[in-house]
Design goal:
Elements (H helix, E strand, L loop, with lengths): L1 H26 L2 H22 L8 E7 L2 E3 L2 E5 L3 E6 L8 E2 L14 E5 L4 E6 L7 E7 L1
Parallel strand pairs: 1-4, 3-8
Antiparallel strand pairs: 1-2, 4-6, 5-7, 7-8
The structure holds copper (II) ion (CU).
């Protein structure tokens, strides 16, 4: 009779432990983690494709947005280069191409936007919030 009681207590303890394990697994949220990982993998794939142009490894060039101006206002880069715009004003700004080739969206103070240029050409852009702010990117082959 005593052995039966011990067995029942053991069974109860195992069941409680089992429930605790299940709770931990539910908290893990595996779906969200998988989405983030696949985003990271896609980003890496894109970078690898940019690097495929053997002649020119893409450089990153900084354009500062400060005092309601793009600096430098006109910039010359090569195909495959990336421009990073960073807003140093407390006012929000955008870097928006006149022909919809790129659009930073609203950049708050300290925020950045990067664009890699794969096609030669002249890209005129503005800040949509302050349309008198103008800039030009000249991409040379
Ligand atoms: Cu602006």
């Amino acid at each position: 009779m005593n052995k039966l009681i011990v067995l029942l207590v053991l069974l109860a303890a195992i069941l409680v432990a089992g429930c605790a394990d299940n709770t931990e697994q539910i908290i893990d949220e595996p779906e969200i983690v998988e989405d983030e990982v696949s985003d990271l993998v896609e980003a890496e794939d894109n970078e690898t494709m940019d690097m495929d142009t053997e002649e020119h490894m893409g450089a990153t060039v900084e354009v500062i947005i400060e005092n309601f101006e793009f600096a430098p206002e006109e910039i010359r880069i090569s195909v495959g280069d990336t421009i990073t715009w960073t807003n140093l004003d407390t006012a929000p700004h955008t870097a928006t191409d006149n022909n919809d080739m790129f659009d930073s969206g609203t950049l708050a103070e300290g925020e950045s936007f990067s664009m890699t240029f794969e096609e030669a050409g002249t890209y005129d852009y503005i800040c949509t919030i302050h349309p008198y702010m103008k800039g030009t990117v000249i991409v040379e082959a």
